[in-house]
Specification:
about 375 residues; Naphthalene 1,2-dioxygenase Alpha Subunit, Chain A, domain 1; Rieske Iron-sulfur Protein; alpha+beta
């Protein structure tokens, strides 16, 4: 019995501005997106701003120690409230000095008491759904979104078991990487290692053993790709590995659809990727590196530098070439190399990923992306 190989997505999914706009108002507004780390706002009144799906947002720690996320817009006449990061006792709009509590409730405003029927208890900043995922703060613009544990079954417990010091980790550094490509091109490149032995000599020969590399989609109905592999032999490793820590001889990654990945390098070194989609052919990637309480580490700074100069630089060249190729009139989507045995030279992970991508664009109102119907 003959079968027809599964082909890659049409180029329009990566090049058409209308497709990108559909994603901004649909997929990117209805999925869990990384905002930042709770260690960025350790004190009452600390805040930071960020953008998701074209919206300016800010996270702030309240007097009750709870972190809340709000749309960064005054409820009076729509001026933005805060910029960058800082600390404040109250949130004061720069335009007319309407003043909000850290809970988002309106506290005061010039001359508002003179307005007949004005009830300040009716006015509050618009809060955004958020979750603390082991200190990593995620948001979802859909107020009816299912919780992260439904989207990513088992991942919370798996990461906690794999990274025993997770609760005390904080960012050492985030490296901002602009890429001239569609965000899906970059995410696809991350989500297969078919290209690794050919393009990533340092990673494939000095960090992991490619012959053991595998990526598996979630089989519990979630939106996760799990990467697993063994590390290289110690004499080939490009950095020193402390074999006394748990899981030191393994590499594990959890990609959380659509734009975030936890990675744990050999030696139990936690690092992350998070993506921001800026346009149909423009995205930004942040590489995060974490240490105990954010304390400095020569080993991890050296590893981060090595990663930036090798794997990251190599990937930038690859994804930007792909984006140029997608615009070529000579491109016809080719068959994916889906090996039933999986392994490093198979694109079964891309088949799963492209299914999610296609559904998000072609059927934006079908689960999981319609409100309140995750499963």
């Amino acid at each position: 019995m003959s079968t027809t190989p599964l082909r890659s997505l049409d180029a329009r999914y990566y090049t058409d501005p209308d497709v990108f706009q559909q994603e901004v108002t649909g997929l990117l507004s209805r999925t869990w997106q990384f905002a930042g780390h709770v260690s960025q706002i350790p004190n009452i009144g600390d805040y930071f701003t960020f953008d998701i799906a074209g919206e300016s947002l800010f996270a702030i720690r309240g007097r009750d120690e709870k972190i809340r996320v709000f749309f960064n817009v005054c409820q009076h006449r729509a001026h933005e409230l805060v910029e960058g990061a800082g600390n404040t006792r109250l949130v004061v709009c720069p335009y007319h000095a309407w003043t909000y509590e850290l809970t988002g409730r309106l506290r005061s405003g010039p001359n508002i008491k003179s307005v007949p029927g004005f009830d300040r208890s009716d006015i509050c900043l618009s809060e955004v759904r958020s979750e603390d995922f082991h200190g990593f703060l995620f948001v979802n613009l859909d107020p009816e979104a299912a919780p992260m544990d439904d989207w990513f079954p088992g991942v919370r417990d798996e990461i906690a078991a794999f990274v025993p010091n997770l609760a005390t980790l904080a960012p050492l550094e985030w490296i901002e990487i602009p890429e001239s490509c569609n965000w899906k091109v970059s995410v696809e490149n991350y989500s297969e290692c078919y290209h690794c032995p050919i393009n990533h000599a340092t990673f494939a020969e000095g960090v992991v053993r490619p012959e053991t590399y595998d990526i598996q989609p979630d089989y519990q109905g979630g939106y996760v790709l799990r990467h697993t592999t063994e590390c290289q032999s110690m004499e080939k490793m490009t950095y020193p590995v402390d074999l006394s820590v748990p899981n030191a001889d393994r590499y594990q990654s959890w990609f959380l659809w659509p734009m975030f990945s936890f990675q744990c390098y050999p030696g139990n070194i936690l690092n992350t990727y998070h993506w921001r989609a800026n346009g149909a052919a423009d995205c930004t990637v942040w590489r995060g590196w974490y240490t105990d309480r954010g304390e400095d580490s020569d080993i991890i700074r050296t590893l981060a530098k090595q990663d930036l100069e090798t794997t990251v630089a190599e990937d930038i060249s690859l994804v930007e070439s792909v984006q140029r190729g997608l615009r070529s009139r000579g491109y016809r989507p080719g068959p994916l190399v889906v090996d039933p045995a999986c392994g490093v030279s198979s694109e079964h992970s891309i088949a799963a990923l492209q299914k999610w991508m296609r559904e998000a664009v072609d059927h934006p109102n079908r689960p999981p992306f319609n409100t309140g119907q995750q499963k």
